[in-house]
């Protein structure tokens, strides 16, 4: 392509430019009067053919036609080739001088009017020159353009997701006369066991949070898992601060919405501190086969209770009250080809808790104490925030075991666990041991459970490597009633059995040291056998039924039994 070296205001006749010698063009005149040349490249040939045709058009039509030519050539990249552009615009003067772009103000003046055909051609040439200048400007600006800045990462955060679930429970009791006389006359009932809403998300790439409240238990609403997490830390992995389930026991860390039975086992109900306010560090090995978690937390829950949920998220007291807990798990077997369908998990946990007290005037817990109560593997339907003594059942499900409240300084809690899954079969077991440093010396309590499950429709439960626990069961086919009648798919079905026990018996040396009117009347050994089924209509809806047969050996009244027929309807999102 050739550019004029003269000033922008001069008309260029192109006579001072030189070209390489080319064959003599052959001009063919068609019947329509259009001249066709054979020395132009294909784009130039077509363009000149089109320009020749445009001479028969009025001025406004030629302007439109020229614009179309320019757009087509620009789209096909013709203007990237100097030779082709030169051929296309061979009959028009150059709009630039010295390879320097000019503005529309520098354009040569419109030619003076002559004949009609000359005026129209001159106007067409003028428009073409303007288009060439604009195209050149676009090419220069495109080459010098800076890269488009990447999306601002801060605009991605914070994120949030709303989740929750509700559980509606019903219970029928059948107690032996001795059992009624020992624990009280348990009343049949229906009520919401849990009704939770949570918001979770991220405020940065590795900083996440969760706020969860329950509207069906003590506090109404009550604090549950409410914390902030910082991930991707060297060695520490993920650090969590707030209220959460402490790292102890696979039974404790299996989410409520994913339980095989309606409630967790007797050892969990008897010994595990569960939710507390504290800080935790958790991490995975490089091959994701080993997990480890360590936490430091406040021992006391509501009114310094050492066990169970801290449903108010508050612990008050300046006497003791600090605990540490740790848990490690390892996958002895994990088939990568089948994922969670084939695995064998083992683990161990340890907790050391210094008991606390509120020494302020008017407090009912001025002395650090220990106390545990055990329900028959079915949650309370009454107002669980209203305490009731052993042998009283006017507030929902009664306690079958009560250690009594007595002065103590600290306790140790240790546990071992195993989880096995092979396709539709699943097994889980734990043993827990507690040693309480009481005013009367060391007191030992212990308990265990074993459970077996089979999924009739062939599914398996997911496994959470980070948490070291079983998760959700996803049906292969949902239960779908058809509009036209009939059923397509029946969801997933699971049957399960569990045996569990706890042994909570105090030495006689504690007599005379019990606090708040309690005693050893609730001491004894409790065995539960449970048969259950779960129908998963879909991933988020299930129906459960359990038959619990409780066998209580109370130290005062002896042996007694009770049958519990309980059910649950659950939906989560």
What is the spatial order of strands in the main beta sheet? 3-4-5-7-8-9-10-12-13-18-19-20-23-24-25-26
How many beta-strand segments? 26
Distance between the termini: 68 Å
Q: Give the helix tally.
A: 7
Give the biggest sheet.
16 strands, antiparallel, barrel
Task: Tell me the strand percentage band.
Answer: 35-45%
Summarize the structure.
It contains seven helices and 26 strands. The chain is mainly beta. The strands form five sheets. Strands 3-4-5-7-8-9-10-12-13-18-19-20-23-24-25-26 form a 16-stranded antiparallel barrel. Strands 1-2 form a two-stranded antiparallel sheet.
Protein model, in words:
By secondary structure, the chain is mainly beta. It has two domains: 27-143, no CATH class; 188-194 and 246-560, Porin (Beta Barrel), CATH 2.40.160. It has seven helices and 26 strands. The protein has a 16-stranded antiparallel barrel. A two-stranded antiparallel ribbon has the order 1-2.
